[in-house]
Amino acid sequence: MSGVYFEVLRDTLERARRGGYLTTEAHLIFWGRISEAYGRGDLTLEELERLEALLEIDRRRYLRDLDVALIGEPEDGA
């Protein structure tokens, strides 16, 4: 199942990139969608990481920024 879902997400990402719709906001929304898919078991960790690479997502940076936004400081070790 995960292979099919990965292909759908990858193709959607590529169409958005070609169409010029991949704004910063779209990157974050898409990252949220692929993270949710991973959490549901629709993607493997490898597929999640491949999609993050296509999105040029720095997971550590975004998680650190999220911690700062929510609690005012990064979580220990971030």
Look at the helices and sheets and give the structural class: mainly alpha
Quick one: biggest sheet? none
The total count of helices amounts to 4
Q: pLDDT under 50 segments (min length 5)?
A: none
Give the terminus-to-terminus CA distance. 33 Å
Q: Give the proportion of residues in helices.
A: over 70%
- Gross morphology: globular
- Chain-averaged pLDDT: 85
CA gyration radius, whole angstroms: 14 Å
Summarize the structure.
The protein is 76% helix and 0% strand. The protein has 78 residues and is mostly helical.
Question: What structural keywords apply?
Answer:
78 residues
Note the topology.
Blueprint: H1 2-19, H2 24-40, H3 45-55, H4 59-71
Question: How would you describe the overall organization of this protein?
Answer:
There is one protein chain. By secondary structure, the chain is mainly alpha-helical. It is built from four helices and no strands. It has helices spanning 2-19, 24-40, 45-55, 59-71. The termini are far apart. The chain is globular and about 40 Å long.
